Amino acid sequence: MAPQQEEDRFLAAYDPRAFDPIAVTVDVVALTLREGALHVLLVRRGAPPFEGAWALPGGFVRAGRESLGEAAARELAEETGLDAADGLGRVHLEQLGSYGRPERDPRMHVVSVAHLAFAPDLPDAKAGSDAAAAAWISVAELEPGWQPDAADPRPNEQGRWPGAHGGGPGHRPVAPELAFDHAGILADGLDRARSKIEYTPLATAFLGEEFTISELRAVYEAVWGATLHAGNFHRKVLSVPGFVESTGGTATHGSVRGGPRARLYRAGDARLLHPALLRPDREETVR
Amino acid sequence: MAPQQEEDRFLAAYDPRAFDPIAVTVDVVALTLREGALHVLLVRRGAPPFEGAWALPGGFVRAGRESLGEAAARELAEETGLDAADGLGRVHLEQLGSYGRPERDPRMHVVSVAHLAFAPDLPDAKAGSDAAAAAWISVAELEPGWQPDAADPRPNEQGRWPGAHGGGPGHRPVAPELAFDHAGILADGLDRARSKIEYTPLATAFLGEEFTISELRAVYEAVWGATLHAGNFHRKVLSVPGFVESTGGTATHGSVRGGPRARLYRAGDARLLHPALLRPDREETVR
DNA sequence: GTAATAGTGTCTATAAGACAGTATTTG
DNA sequence: CAAATACTGTCTTATAGACACTATTAC
Fold this sequence. Notes:
Number of strands of chain A: 9
CATH superfamily of the largest domain in chain A: Nucleoside Triphosphate Pyrophosphohydrolase
CATH architecture of the largest domain in chain A: Alpha-Beta Complex
Helix content of chain A: 10-25%
Largest interface: A-B, 56 and 56 residues
Distance between the termini of chain A: 39 Å
Oligomer: homodimer
């Protein structure tokens, strides 16, 4: 190590302020199900850099005043309009990872601590103070390897691009570039979500307090982009201890297209699923 | 949101420097096997705060000059004496998570991006510039719920506490408090390591280029603190595609206490294990 | 020789998936 | 009534673990 660097380090041990500053932000990959398809919360940036581009919601951590998780919950609340009282408590929020390449923000070195959130269907997003717009965007339209007929998500009138990046009605809009390195963060978040529901009961975080097994299966199908066998899924879920517990009730209606009224369940007390629900068809893509 | 805070945010969108600074550090939970037992690299702090206490190796990220992973690799190299040339390349290094409670460092708000490293048996550690000492410390002596006879690690002459926190020869020293929140980071790192070797082939990162199945089993036994069935483990490892591949060679000697010469293997090309090697006995501790 | 180990065979319990079948509801 | 769905039964295959057995090496 060069002598100058050693001197730097020595000083820093006594006063970290001797270093050039690095800004710390939190970003949130917030996922929800709308119209049977997986959606992510995005904001349109109202200021440079990347003004006008879509980005993950996030912002600077308030030094000395909040932890990383608190900052992420605050940013999420600002964009969703939720507060702790009316449902933020039902949202699952976990840390995803930190992103700190020096050139990832043109202004200065910014380290972003990304978080991942699973939310039940929420009302339309509303822009926070520094965003021009906020919206739930269909993940299928954002992913490069999008396969339009995988899992057959119902055509959604809701999830269209609000405004920008045109494409008249009926046209599939071109997936936009996300600001900064947010495309990579989103990809990591989707990876994490897809594997996390394998071995934890967090798929239930996408649903209301009470749900049917079919609704739970719809979560897995939307997140994984795969069709699951209804009968085997049903038995499997009920056989994993602590995954779900019966409420004793039944749904008030059958399905839209017929069928008996399904029984209702709530999330159980397990934190990990034993045995896990493994994704189908991953053997060869993995090596 | 209060008007003053909105104003803060508006300005920050244009100039992040308007915020109070947060320092960014990296810390490394570096694990290795010595004398058949899991060890972690610790340093004795040579400067306040927590001067004289043991801590994870780490330091400040150099603003604008390195990514988080590069900073972690640099800090690890400084304490282990390795450089990219002579073996740092064989060390597995991944991000563990970030820790940012405002009060975790008494000097100022410091966000630490913790990393996790798996290393083959390395030479004795040597203190970096700002540490009074560095040493590989037996993990068993650091964990609260330590069970002295679990997995029967051989009594190690090497892993004793060098100096501090006395305890004469033959006495088990009291586990010391780690500086900052490093005890929690270490616990998270051990959790991650224990689950990561279930579904990835990273246990091989603790071994040399060539190894026997028994050496690989010793890694699992040391990390999990459990005894595994030799015969079933052997067959299981060979049955997972891409986990290990034969080199064609055999060990030059049998085991210390007899037995045939074992065949040699190297790490295969799989990145995930299918099916995974599940830890025994976790059903009820998990809920 | 004795003891420990490497590697393999076999049996059982469990789990996953394919498939079928019954009862219930919508339209 | 026709069609879709909720849920259960059954069969086949893959896997995990218990146990046993042989061959090989150290001392």
